[in-house]
Amino acid sequence: MKTLVVFDFDHTIVDENSDTWVIRCTPDQKLPDWLEKSYQRGRWTEYMGRVLTYIGDQSVRPEHMRAVMESIPFTDGMTELLTFISENKKHIDCIIISDSNTLFIDWALQASGLKSAVDDVFSNPANIDARGYVSLRCFHAHACKECPVNLCKRRVLRDFTENRAKDGLRYERICYIGDGGNDFCPVKELTEGDIAMPRKGFTLEKLLRKGISEGSNELRAKIMPWTSAKEILQELRALIE
Ligand SMILES: [Mg+2]
Ligand SMILES: [Zn+2]
């Protein structure tokens, strides 16, 4: 039976937020105040749509944006971890669920040469339109009250494992690797035998601590905080060997 590894992207696979990293491709390397102030809580994807339109208006070419995204740094040990996963596809399936977008993730993964580690990417769909602007859409609509309007990662994870189960594939365990507030909802989908891997010092770890201290019965997975992805690699190696 296989292990399913689920990754968040920003501050997990890469050590930055791709949506703020992209601002480096603008002529001033910053956004105007009026644009920054237009963000409304829970509506990040709409805001990013405006940011990408602004970037297009500055005559930034998509090739330049791509080069900037290819320079985004990976988190410590992540290259080694993704290499290990790509060499052990017989035992490991691997997906990314991210509130960034498909284009940024694809560019960063292609540049790393480790795209083969990843079976599927679930993120806001993005493409380059006829004007050379990046256009962005919301991933889906959902009924979860806890998550941003465009993405409930728990729903994505559940749909994914249910679809696999229909094909007769059940996972021995799920390892969920993330850092952010929107990774808390999917961690509640995990059960005994699964492992939640929150990045040490980040929001998800704090939410898990709080949930456990309050005696939440939704947190059933084992919790393994990490600083370097090399620690995840060690754990994964021990699990599949
Ligand atoms: Mg993140
Ligand atoms: Zn949710």
TrEMBL record:
Tagged with keyword Metal-binding: yes
Pfam families assigned: Put_Phosphatase (PF06888)
Cofactor(s) for this UniProt protein: Mg(2+)
- Binding-site residues for Mg(2+), renumbered to this chain: 8, 10, 179
Name the domain of life this protein comes from. Eukaryota
Could you give a GO molecular-function term held by this entry? phosphatase activity
Write down the top EC class of this protein: hydrolase
Query: Which UniProt keyword terms apply here?
Result: Hydrolase, Magnesium, Metal-binding
**EC number(s) reported in the record:** 3.1.3.74
Residues annotated as binding substrate are 19, 99
Q: Where is the active site?
A: 8 (nucleophile), 10 (proton donor)
Q: Which family does it belong to?
A: Belongs to the HAD-like hydrolase superfamily. PHOSPHO family.
Q: Which PANTHER family match?
A: PHOSPHATASE, ORPHAN 1, 2 (PTHR20889), PYRIDOXAL PHOSPHATE PHOSPHATASE PHOSPHO2 (PTHR20889:SF1)
Please report the name of this protein according to its UniProt entry: Phosphatase, orphan 2
- Species: Danio rerio
Gene that specifies this protein:
phospho2
